[in-house]
């Protein structure tokens, strides 16, 4: 599974890219507007940070001709840009033309298997089902993802399924188990993937043990994270759990 960040914030993107696990970025007009930069400048800076990864940039026109004009402009900025168009009749008409021109398109705001089927038949490079937004109205977002993946496998569509609107780590894991090609998530959710209380407790215990034993071992080494040692010493005595 590929990991995308759903953000236009350069600092968040830099932090994720530095870890070596970031495959791309998804942006939308709302996210881009928060950054207070000219849109072209922002997208190109994101492309520079992500390097070989994919950067999704969305059109804002609602008619086919406007979408085509904006999509061609966006695609001309950088070879790694994928153009986002909405799942509407005009969007599908634009997709059909753009696909014929070799421009990669992400069909966004997908909420049903029939919409995903139309997008794949018209030549979408990505299709983005919004799981969290369906969950918000008491519909089964993961069920939609499961249906789309099954349909695409049945007919061997080349369109990649980009699971979007992921609200927590369980969404990411469930999307991976279902077989989504890509998960895009806010930076907060990305950070939560790292966390487990037993990891923190185990590290604290190991550092506490090392602090006690380092003089015996003949090593004069400062602990990597003194604050963890202090926290560990403040806890009641526990086994190390090795």
Question: What would you note in describing this structure?
Answer:
- The protein is an alpha/beta fold and 242 residues long.
- The chain has two domains: 2-192, Alpha-Beta Barrel (TIM Barrel); 197-234, no CATH class.
- 52% of the residues lie in helices and 15% in strands.
- It has twelve helices and eight strands.
- An eight-stranded parallel β-barrel has the order 1-2-3-4-5-6-7-8, surrounded by seven helices.
- The longest helix has 17 residues, at 197-213.
In short:
52% of the residues lie in helices and 15% in strands.
Strand order, biggest sheet? 1-2-3-4-5-6-7-8
Overall tally of domains = 2
Q: Percent of residues in helical segments? A: 40-55%
One letter per element, helices H and strands E, the order comes to: EHEHHEHEHEHEHHEHEHHH
| Inertia-based shape | globular
How far apart are the first and last residues' alpha carbons, in Å? 31 Å
Unreliable parts: 237-242
Helix and strand layout, with pairings?
Elements (H helix, E strand, L loop, with lengths): L1 E5 L3 H9 L5 E3 L2 H6 L4 H12 L3 E5 L5 H14 L3 E6 L2 H12 L4 E6 L2 H10 L3 E4 L1 H6 L4 H15 L4 E4 L5 H10 L3 E4 L1 H6 L4 H17 L12 H9 L8
Parallel strand pairs: 1-2, 1-8, 2-3, 3-4, 4-5, 5-6, 6-7, 7-8
Helix pairs in contact: 1-3, 4-5, 6-8, 8-9, 11-12
């Amino acid at each position: 599974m590929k990991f995308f960040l759903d953000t236009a914030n350069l600092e968040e993107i830099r932090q994720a890219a530095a870890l070596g696990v970031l495959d791309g970025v998804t942006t939308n007009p709302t996210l881009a507007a928060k950054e207070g930069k000219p849109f072209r400048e922002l997208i190109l800076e994101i492309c520079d940070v992500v390097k070989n990864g994919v950067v999704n940039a969305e059109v804002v026109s609602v008619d086919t001709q406007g979408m085509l004009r904006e999509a061609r402009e966006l695609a001309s900025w950088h070879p790694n840009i994928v153009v986002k168009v909405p799942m509407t009749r005009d969007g599908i008409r634009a997709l059909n033309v753009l696909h014929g021109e070799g421009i990669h398109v992400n069909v966004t705001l997908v909420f049903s298997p029939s919409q995903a089927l139309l997008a794949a038949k018209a030549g979408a490079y990505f299709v983005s089902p919004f799981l969290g937004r369906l969950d918000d109205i008491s519909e089964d977002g993961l069920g939609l993802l499961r249906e789309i993946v099954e349909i695409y496998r049945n007919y061997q569509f080349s369109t990649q399924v980009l699971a979007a609107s992921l609200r927590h780590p369980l969404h990411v894991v469930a999307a991976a188990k279902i077989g989504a090609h890509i998960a895009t998530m806010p930076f907060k959710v990305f950070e939560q993937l790292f966390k487990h209380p037993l990891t923190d407790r185990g590290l604290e215990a190991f550092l506490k043990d090392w602090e006690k034993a380092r003089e015996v071992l003949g090593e004069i080494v400062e602990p990597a994270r003194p604050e963890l040692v202090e926290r560990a010493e403040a806890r009641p005595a526990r086994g190390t759990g090795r």
